[in-house]
Amino acid sequence: MRHVIIGAGPAGVVAAETLRKLDPDSNVTMLSHEPEPPYSRMAIPYYLVEQVGEQGTWLRKGDGYFENNGITVRTGVKAEGLDTQAKQVKLAGGDTVPYDKLLIATGSHPIVPPLPGVDREGVHTCWTLEDSRHIIERAKEGSRVVLIGAGFIGCIILESLVMRKTRLTVIEQQNRMVPRMMDDRAGGLIKKWCQDKGVTVHTSTTVESIDEGGDGHPLAVRMDNGESAQADLVIVCVGVKANTAFLEGSGVKADQGILVDRHLQTSVEDVYAAGDVAQGLDFNTGEYTVQAIQPTAADHGRLAANNMAGYPLKHQGSVNMNVLDTLGLISTSFGMWMGVDGGDSAELYDGDRFRYINLQFKDDVLVGGSSLGMTDHVGVMRGLIQSKVRLGKWKERLKNDPTRIMEAYIACTQAIGHNARVLSA
Amino acid sequence: MLKALKLEPEKCTGCLQCEMACSFENTGAFNPAKSRIKVFTFHDEGRFAPYTCTQCDEAWCMHACPVEAIVLNMATGSKDVLSDVCVGCKVCTIACPFGTVNYEADSGKVVKCDLCGGDPWCAKACPTGAITYVAADDTGMERMRAWAQQAPREAGAHANPPKAKEVQVFNVPQQGGL
Cβ of B155 and A43 within 8 Å? Predict the structure, then answer.
């Protein structure tokens, strides 16, 4: 059996390892179009501040790890097409790779908006190690950096840019920072936090063009509010898009991402998809969406590999969630943090202390939540959402004090003493 | 034989010696805020519940880590954070559905219970036997019973929750707890 995986991110690596375990006699080959060993984009912000070297970003660190585990990794090879009839992957340069079972884990790529001047020297996306090297080169102490887009990726590298002592301007089209993760109030607090730390933040502002700069700065970013920000480096972080272009003509159907069933099989037999490229089942909505988050990629990888190895496993849906550290202000979001129709919510807002927590219920079950300025026990929101634990009287208690979420979980799932009588009897 | 922490809230008096011992062992200072085991207080009921990582087999934290900084300790079964490898991305803190991996701003790393390498100080410090370190099998059956009673169910189901029968009852909360 020849298992071929296109892509060497978390979904690809977890799938390769799972296949190795479940199907020991098979060949497992991973194809990566980047030259580096499999690495994690999640580690890039820490690479940018030189907290870790390149090796610190690697998904697996042991010497010869993949080799020793019988996983062939081919780096620097780009899949350009797929022939699902002949069952082979077409590589750039004309080579082909035959497969019996194929996993597409090609991830996504950053969107570059069609702005005038976006192709100027000094304008970069922030997605790969290669991008990071360019950014490190230009983001020197005192240099002017303009970050276009304050979504998740923009906000996560924002800290790195401040730590590199650049003079930073952030421009976001929507009315708040991280609009897909935080509501108005929490997003507003993040903005204020950044401004207090010396970052210039423009929200509800659109970039019109990237022009030639002056005063020794090669670039100038012109905004629709009439202002212009000079820059030595412009970083574009306006979102990502699934890497599906190479599938044209293959018969593998895609929408926002590759369409998969609950076994993560695509519209073509023996072809599976996982991670950012897959439009997988969302635990909360029951709909198929691209979540593009690390835990979902790992889930997908493991599940797809089980199915590829002949151990059918159905996807129960992944909870969409995120955690973000913006200059030390930590935010999280889980599931239906924006609420559901006919639902109910609990909220606590302490703007002066940059604290916020919001819980969303359907009946007495937690379906979503978000927090700001909390680091302890935040994962329990995921646990309560995914286990659909009924909160009973704890729902009212949480409405009075949503910070008691961990107590609610413990009280609803562990014995807190009402069985002491039974035990001592 | 693999051992596990057995937590029995009904024996807990809320003295917090476990938190003192844990923080001292792991940080060198008596600082309950840095303890990896936490005693939760239920004022209305006058109850206390110690809680920490169960070293679950699913190891959500370990599988979610993007840089292989959480590893299985083969000797104890614990999932240990390798501090020098952890970049502080916090993905494990949202992936752990039990809320027992926490980010520590001082160090910029995550921390979780590692069973003190097989000699957990919380258990040694607990004066009432609410925290014991016992053969994993001894905690397993009871835990299974507890979870069987508390299995996920759709809201609206079980208007009359099933009552435990015959078996000796351990860890069986009523619907909605307390």
Answer: no
Whether residues A254 and A105 share a domain: the answer is yes
Q: Which residues of chain B have pLDDT under 50?
A: 155-178
Q: Point out the residues of chain A with pLDDT beneath 50.
A: 419-425
Q: A232 and A135 share a domain?
A: yes
Residues A297 and A334 in one domain: no
In this prediction the ipTM stands at 0.91
Q: What's the domain range around A141?
A: 123-236
Identify the CATH number of the domain defined by range B57-112. Answer: 3.30.70.20
Nearest to B150 by CA among B162, B165, B167: B162
Q: Are residues A362 and A297 in the same domain?
A: no
Q: Which residues of B touch A390 (CB under 8 A)?
A: 153, 155, 175-176
Query: Domain check: are A274 and A365 in the same one?
Result: no
- Å between B82 CA and nearest CA of chain A: 12
Chain B, 62 to 101: residues with Cβ < 8 Å from chain A are 63-64, 66-68, 85, 87-101
Tens of pLDDT, residues A316-352: 999 999 999 999 999 999 999 999 999 999 999 999 9
Q: Where in chain B are the domains?
A: 1-52+117-148, 57-112
Q: Is residue A190, in this structure, part of any structural domain at all? A: yes
- Report long-range pairs for A81-90 (Cβ below 8 Å, ≥24 apart): A81/A246, A81/A248, A81/A249, A81/A250, A82/A246, A82/A247, A82/A250, A82/A252, A82/A271, A83/A250, A84/A250, A84/A251, A84/A252, A84/A268, A84/A271, A87/A270, A89/A4, A89/A6, A89/A31
Are A177 and A269 in a shared domain? no
Rg (CA), chain B: 17
Q: Rounded to an integer, what distance in angstroms lies between the CA atom of residue A309 and that of residue A26? A: 9
B87–A334 C-beta distance less than 8 A: no
Contact B90 A46 (CB under 8 A): no
Contact B38, B5 (CB under 8 A): no
For residue A318, being part of any structural domain is answered with no
A252 and A215 assigned to the same domain? no
- Indicate which CATH number applies to the domain containing A62: 3.50.50.60
Residue whose entry in the numeric block shows the structure tokens 């979870």? B147
CA distances from A164 to A13, A42, A191, A363, B105 (A): 31, 18, 20, 47, 19
Q: Which CATH class is domain B1-52+117-148?
A: alpha beta
Instruction: Report yes or no: A59 at the B interface, CB cutoff 8 Å.
Output: yes
Q: Residues 6 or more apart from A117 whose CB is under 8 A from it?
A: A123, A209, A210, A211, A219
Contact A411/B178, CB-based, under 8 Å?
A: yes
B88 chain-A contacts, CB cut-off 8 A: 46, 325
Residue B157 has a pLDDT of 44
Q: What is the pLDDT of residue B174?
A: 45
Overall number of domains in chain A: 3
Q: Which two tokens stand for residue A258?
A: 């590759």
Quick one: pLDDT at residue A424? 39
CA distances to B77, B96, B120 from B3, rounded to whole Å, are 8, 21, 11
Residues A249 and A105 in one domain: yes
